[in-house]
Amino acid sequence: MTASAAPARRSGPGPAGAPDAPPSRRILVTGLSTYWGGLLAQRLERDPSIECVIGVDSRDPTRELERTEFVRVGTQHALLRRVVIAAEIDTVIDTRLTVDSTTVPARAAHENNVMGTMNVLAACGGPGSTVRKFVFKSSAHYYGSAQDDPAFFTEEMTRPHAPGTPIERDIVEAEASVADFAEKNPRTLVTLLRFANVLGPDVRTSHTKLLALPAVPMILGFDPRYQFVHEDDVVNALAHVVEHQQPGIFNVAGDGVLALSEVAGMLGKSYAPVLSPWGTGVAAAVARRLGVHIPPEMLGQLRFGRGVDNRKLKATGFRYRYTSRESVLKLSEHLRLHPILRAVEEPYRYEREVEEFLRWSPNVRDARRREDRAGSGQAAELGRGPGEAQAAPAIEGYDDLNASEIVPMVAALEPPQLAALREHECRSRDRRTVLAAIDKALVRAENGAN
User: Fold this and answer.
1) How would you classify residue 126: left for phi > 0, otherwise alpha for psi between -120 and 50, otherwise beta?
2) Cβ atoms of 137 and 93 closer than 8 Å
3) How many Å apart are CA 355 and CA 368, to the nearest integer?
C-alpha cells in the first residue's frame, strides 16, 4: 500500500444510489476510555431516541456514564464482531485514532491507528452484519503542511506530498482502509470527519500545552496560519452525522484563520521565534529536554500552517458554536480560571463493583444516585406544587455556558438561587464540577450565616 496518496473516495452527500441507513438506535462507540469516546457517549446517552449505547475499550472509562454499557475488549475483530452481532448494533463510531505522537510510542500508535482500524472495520462488515452506519473520527493531519499547499484544502483533495511523519502515514493508511470498506460494503453509510486542531478547557493536546507556556515558541521567519475547532463542536459534529444521513468526507474547523503571533496576543502572551528554520528536529529535541514537547507533525504546521474548507459540513445543516477566534478566547479564559477550577475538580475513577451496583441492584431506587441530588435540590423538588414550573437559573444564558464559565459566577449567588441552580443542573447536564462548586458555595453561605 503506498502512502503518498489516498484512493478515490465517495465524498459529500454521495452520488445517486448512496446507502440510506435507518435511524441510529443501537450504537457502539470504540475507544470509550479516550477523551472523545467518553464525551460522545455522555452526549448520546441524553438522546431518548437511542435505545442503547455500548462502549468498548481495553482500559477503564475515564468519564462517569449513566446508561452506556462498558465492555472490556480491545480491537480484536472476532470479539468485536461477537459484540456487534449479539447487540444488533446498527451504528459504529470509531473515536480511537491517535493524532498526537507525544501521547504514545510510534509502534503503539501504528498498531492502534492502522491495525486497529482494520480490525474494527472487519468486525463491522461481512455477511450478516447489522451495521448500517460507520463514523470515523480522523484528523486534518491527513493533508500535511507544506510550502506549496493550497490556501484551503477541500475534502476532494489528496495531500500533494507523501506523508513525512509516522502519524501522518498512519492517518493516510487508516483512511484508505475506511475507503476500501465503503466500497466493499455499499449497504453501509460511511462518514469520515477530519478535525482541525482542537482547543477547549478540558482537552489536552500538544498545541494546548504549547499555548499554555509563558511565551509561545515559533520558528524564526515563520508566522503560520492556524484554524481551530472547539471541543464542544467536535462532539456536536460527531453527534450531527450520527443523527443525519451524511455519507462522505467532511472537514471540521471553526470559521476564520489566525496567525500564530495573533493567537499568542489573544492569550496575553509574547511569542518567541527561538526555533531555527534549519534543523528544527534538533531544536525540538533541545526543547524536549526543557520540558517542551513539539511532535514531528507539529513542526510542519509551525512553518507553513494549514487551512481547510469547512463549508461542506455547514451545508448539511451543522452550525458551529465557536469560530477559530472564539475558541482561542475560550482557551484564554480557561487558562486564567484554571487555578480556581482545579480546587473544585474531582477526577472520576471507574470502579466496576460500584457501577454494577448503581446500574443493576434492585436496592437502587428509580431516582438514581440520590446522593448527587440530595439536600437543596431535592428539597426544592418536594416543595414545588404540581402545577409549578421550574424557575429559570439565576445566571443569564446558563444553558449555553461551559463549566469553566459557570464556576466563577456561583460564589456571587444567594442560597435560594444556589438551590434552584443545583436543581436545574441535576435535571439537565449533571456536571460534577458545577455541582461541586454549588455545594461548596452553599456550605460557605451556611457557615457565614452561623
Assistant:
1) left
2) yes
3) 12
Q: How confident is the model at residue 117 (pLDDT cuts 50, 70, 90)?
A: very high
pTM: 0.78
- Alpha-carbon dihedral sign for residues 227, 233, 239, 245: negative
| Residue that the C-alpha cell 480546587 belongs to | 343
Question: For residue 185, how far is the Cα from the chain centroid?
Answer: 27
- The pLDDT mean for the chain works out to 84
Determine the residue type at 441: A
For residue 371, pLDDT beyond 70: no
Residue 361 CB-density burial (10 A; 0-12 exposed, 13-18 middle, 19+ buried): exposed
Integer Cα distance of 225 and 400 in angstroms: 29
Instruction: Give CA–CA dist 306/198, Å, rounded.
Output: 14
DSSP designation for 207: H
Strand pairing class (68-72; 215-219): unpaired
pLDDT tier at 335, thresholds 50, 70, 90: confident
Contact of 115 with 218, CB cutoff 8 Å: no
119 pLDDT band, cuts 50/70/90, is very high
Cα-Cα end-to-end distance for the chain? 73
Q: Got the DSSP string for 290-303?
A: TT----HHHHHHHH
Grid cell digits, residue 175 = 483512511
Give the residue range(s) of CATH 3.40.50.720 domains in the chain.
Answer: 26-341
Task: Give the class (CATH, top level) of 26-341.
Answer: alpha beta
The helix (run of H) or strand (run of E) holding residue 47 is: none
CA distances from 46 to 6, 39, 68, 254 (A): 37, 11, 11, 25
CA atoms of 131 and 136, how far apart (whole Å) = 14
* Radius of gyration, CA atoms only, the chain: 23
C-alpha cell at position 202: 478540558
- List the grid coordinates of 278: 534549519
Which of residues 93 and 282 earns the better pLDDT score?
Answer: 93
Beta bridge partners of 93: 29, 135
Which whole number is the average pLDDT over 204-228?
91
C-alpha cell at 402: 461551559
At residue 238 the predicted structure's pLDDT band, cuts being 50, 70 and 90, is very high
